[in-house]
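Researcher: Batch entry, complex prediction.
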Amino acid sequence: MPHLDAAYNLARWLAGNDHDAADIVQDASVRAFRFIGNCRGENARAWLLMIVRNTAFTWLKKNRPQAIVSIDDDELAEIEDTNSATNSFRGADKNVLRAALEELPLEFREALVLRELEGFSYKEIAEVADVPVGTVMSRLARARRQLQNHFAQKGNL
Amino acid sequence: MNCAEIRKLLHAYADGELDLVRNLEVEQHLKSCAKCAAEKNSIQSLRDALRQNDLAYRAPNALRKEIQKMVRTAREDARPTINPWFWKLLTAGATAFAALVIFLRPAGISGHDQLLNDAVASHVRSLQANHLTDVLSSDQHTVKPWFDGKIDFAPDAKDFAAQNFPLVGGRLDYLDGRTVAALVYKRNKHFINVFVWPEKNAGAGETKNLRGYSIINCDANGMHYCLVSDLNATELNELARLLAP
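Model: Structure tokens for the complex:
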């Protein structure tokens, strides 16, 4: 199956462990195979990841409702300048980065994983998460702002 | 634009998602504002750290096998019940026929649009059939001579790895009734097909979007370049400017 690594990567970042991620991907594959006729063939990768994403969120709602915290997507409310110290992430420790990413709200983490680890465009992320492109932009900005603040506070990488 | 407005655009700027005009506005502002420039560097540094630290998980082999097995059984189960598939094929056939009729209407499509359509189709095919390159190299001294004797012109096969557009290789393709050179570049995980042939003014300087693919046409040194990719137009334009400064 093409794009399996991308599917697993997203599921793993949303679920937080290997076992649940594998379950989600398997479940999503069954659905993808069943609905393959609905894929218009334009962007199979985004289509598949949309299914993985929906499967993961349904799974989380059922098994880990506390993980779903609704975030306020008001574009105007955000990117306030907290005047954080200019930080360079050069030489950042992989495990520290990983832990910081895991602390982000689901929607922010998802946007960042798709953008930075999978190289998705804003349009593709919008398709996967079923939100407007403007929301993708604001989620990425707020996700990065949180990481910047996180490291500014800890003062180490 | 003031700093607050720039801050709102900085992330889209760092992601290469701004349109050309706003891109230039941000660039201009960054030249004169040290605070915003520092913020941009911080964003860029965070992006680099996330991308270079190999944070992506790969599917375990057991899962891969499990899913392969599942797809195989599902296919076998589907075999005896030909009916739904038959209908699906039939409707697909009818749709294709209708599309063909519309496509071939005399007043339908201009020669140039046809060329763009073909370019996108070639791009898509090159990715589907896993036939992206015939010569796989980022070394222009390997790629350029490879075209020798295969076509009657010598395309410049420059590597732009330093600008984040590594040359992946090249192959021959067929476009607009002639054999053309196709150079393949990469930006992150996106592939870019650059079709090259000796001609001028085939809609040079034009940026188009067709079925979600960006297309940019430009001319340089008597050659015509047609760039096709699922990359956004802003980033694709960076490559166009490298090819035809």
